[in-house]
TrEMBL record:
The keyword Transmembrane helix does not apply. This is Isochorismatase family protein. PANTHER family: PEROXYUREIDOACRYLATE/UREIDOACRYLATE AMIDOHYDROLASE-RELATED. Residues 6-136 form the Isochorismatase-like domain. Keywords: Hydrolase. It comes from Streptomyces yanii. The lineage of its organism: Bacteria, Bacillati, Actinomycetota, Actinomycetes, Kitasatosporales. InterPro entries: Isochorismatase-like_dom, Isochorismatase-like_hydrls, Isochorismatase-like_sf.
Amino acid sequence: MPHAPALLVIDMQNTLVAIAHRAFETVATIAGLRERARAAGVPIVTIQHRGEGLEAGTEGWRIVPELAPAADEEVVHKTSADSFLDTGLDETLTALGVTEVVVTGFATEICVDTTARQALSHRYDLVLVADGHTTSVRPDAGEYAAPDRSIAHHNEIYRHIDFPGRSIRVLPASEVDFAVLP
């Protein structure tokens, strides 16, 4: 089967980006990836969460303007951390002929991690964009890892996780080349 990537942009919505660590940098990184994906003819799939505080149609629920999907791009709506659960994501990717997902978005430990693992379980190869996902700003005290540590921790896990038959890579956005992904 020929290699065919898609860029996933997970939950980059106004309410969530407002509480995101390194929000400006992450949005800019994903925007650059979107431009490069479009130029290479790679599909972009935007994932949009709906739930408490993210009611459909509200300003907070909308995707940030810099990452708003174009009219010809797919949008998948979800209600859990898993972008595959009770959504049409798998069917959308299959219809597009996708074999690998390039994962970006919010929040590292929840929706990004859950969706990345589910993509592997659904037999997609995976690129986790090391500088293209983020988490919430939070105090250093408490049980959560600090944002930079959490992002680094998840990047490291994906450098070592093993799913037989799947290609798994962690790349900075600057090294993602949609034209030559294996």
